[in-house]
Amino acid sequence: ADCNSESQASSQDVTGCILPHPPKIRHVAYQVEDE
């Protein structure tokens, strides 16, 4: 799963690469801002 090769990577590859990066940090930032 190459994050840089989005055009070459399939939707599954892109998802696997996008999922592990932002989600946790985003969730934490959202919770902190919400509180």
TrEMBL record:
Domain of life: Eukaryota
Chain intervals with Polar residues compositional bias: 1-14
Residue numbers spanned by region Disordered: 1-20
Protein name, as recorded: Uncharacterized protein
Source organism per UniProt: Sousa chinensis (Indo-pacific humpbacked dolphin)
